[in-house]
UniProtKB/TrEMBL annotation:
<dbReference type="InterPro" id="IPR009040">
    <property type="entry name" value="Ferritin-like_diiron"/>
</dbReference>
<keyword id="KW-0560">Oxidoreductase</keyword>
<feature type="binding site">
    <location>
        <position position="21"/>
    </location>
    <ligand>
        <name>Fe cation</name>
    </ligand>
</feature>
<dbReference type="InterPro" id="IPR012347">
    <property type="entry name" value="Ferritin-like"/>
</dbReference>
<dbReference type="GO" id="GO:0008198">
    <property type="term" value="F:ferrous iron binding"/>
</dbReference>
<dbReference type="GO" id="GO:0008199">
    <property type="term" value="F:ferric iron binding"/>
</dbReference>
<keyword id="KW-0409">Iron storage</keyword>
<feature type="binding site">
    <location>
        <position position="98"/>
    </location>
    <ligand>
        <name>Fe cation</name>
    </ligand>
</feature>
<feature type="binding site">
    <location>
        <position position="131"/>
    </location>
    <ligand>
        <name>Fe cation</name>
    </ligand>
</feature>
<dbReference type="GO" id="GO:0042802">
    <property type="term" value="F:identical protein binding"/>
</dbReference>
<dbReference type="GO" id="GO:0006826">
    <property type="term" value="P:iron ion transport"/>
</dbReference>
<protein>
    <recommendedName>
        <fullName>Ferritin</fullName>
        <ecNumber>1.16.3.2</ecNumber>
    </recommendedName>
</protein>
<comment type="similarity">
    <text>Belongs to the ferritin family. Prokaryotic subfamily.</text>
</comment>
<dbReference type="GO" id="GO:0004322">
    <property type="term" value="F:ferroxidase activity"/>
</dbReference>
<keyword id="KW-0808">Transferase</keyword>
<keyword id="KW-0408">Iron</keyword>
<dbReference type="Pfam" id="PF00210">
    <property type="entry name" value="Ferritin"/>
</dbReference>
Amino acid sequence: MDTKRISATLEEALSTQMNVELFQSHTYLSYGIWATDKGYDGIGNFLMRHSLEERNHAIKFMQYVLNRGGKPTVSALKGAEGDPQNLTDCFNRVFKHEVENTEKIYNLVNMAFEEKDWATWNFLQWFVKEQIEEETLAMDLIDKLKIAGGDRATDESLFNLDKDLGKAEDDAELARNANSENP
Ligand SMILES: [Fe+2]
Ligand SMILES: [Fe+2]
């Protein structure tokens, strides 16, 4: 008896997304190594923690496809793109990666909608929410660096930024958690 509860098209698309998340993990790991090597240990730590988070996203896609009776495939990972030029470039790239990933998630949501696969549609809503958080986090990085003085930041303000990010929350503050006492 065929117990598969997902179409071949969605099975493949979600499997591809698993690999996209693995690539994101790879990319942030390479940025983390770059930052640590430059002496920004806090930022490096932040990026490496983020790399782990992306791997967890990949595992969520893997588990979902398996749960629906499908089988995801791990494809060969392309190597991470080269090192960022500087911190501004690094954070801009993080933001760009997140926006591109959001577009990929939206595309999957569309596919699930068209197939009326509500289980997959519902599964993907977690990622829709998560991407709001990821984009906010990336925007915060860009803002923090701007406030510190951007590429012309003094050693002291970069030192403080690095220290802050080393122990920063991994989650951004979002509107959904806000209330009148804690806007
Ligand atoms: Fe992700
Ligand atoms: Fe992400």
